[in-house]
Amino acid sequence: MARMPVRKYRVIGIKNENHNTKTWQITAVNGNNLEFRPGQFVLMYLLDEKGNPAGDVRPYSVSSSPLKHECLEFTIKMTPNFPAKLLDIGIGAEVGIAGPSGVFTLDESHADIVFVVGGVGVAGVSSAVRYVIDKKLPMKMTLFYSCSYAKDFIWLDEFDKMQSENFTFVPVVTRENPEGWKGETQRFSIDILRKYVETPQKAHYYLCGSPGMVSGVEEILKRIGLDRTRIKMEKWTGIGEGG
What we know:
The chain is α/β, with parallel strands linked by helices. The protein folds into two domains: 7-101, Elongation Factor Tu (Ef-tu), domain 3 (Beta Barrel), CATH 2.40.30.10; 112-235, Nucleotide-binding domain of ferredoxin-NADP reductase (FNR) module (Rossmann fold, 3-Layer(aba) Sandwich). 19% of the residues lie in helices and 33% in strands.
């Protein structure tokens, strides 16, 4: 299979999201930024001295909305391998981008959507959440976002401010009960699902996170008799550290 064309993009910003996660902002060196559907990913290459793709490449989901035309954003958990190398090249450096790809995409025909995500897996659905709200689509969304500790969350304030009649945000912390915490402290369950989603069997589900988390949520949904065609899943193994 032929490799997808690789276009050069320039790093124009790096934002700290929490103690170990950053968002990279990039823009095309020549021409317009690529068009993509919410939930899709790209392949990101480091470039050699001649500006050609080097051996290092990782898949990353686009975390920004398709309606944000000035740049593409990728939210990445820092690790000693590819993300550390990406941080070393810094603002102003160029990277190679190929894509977009992927089928973990938003279906705009769905009337009721439930996102269940864990950790940095939230970057796999943030594009869809932002897109629906920015475009004012007439669909109901519920976002269950789980982390082990409060310090691991990103975008808590953003998601909280987005809440409306059509968007419910449920942060879930599983290994502590911080003072003043307003979210849930129990892992995702049938009871928690029914607490926030009026008719769970009629919703469509997007699951994104570690393989264990995604498989566990899938089993819960099976127990309520949910049709498998109503579930989309993206299992992150850590290879991309964020997409």
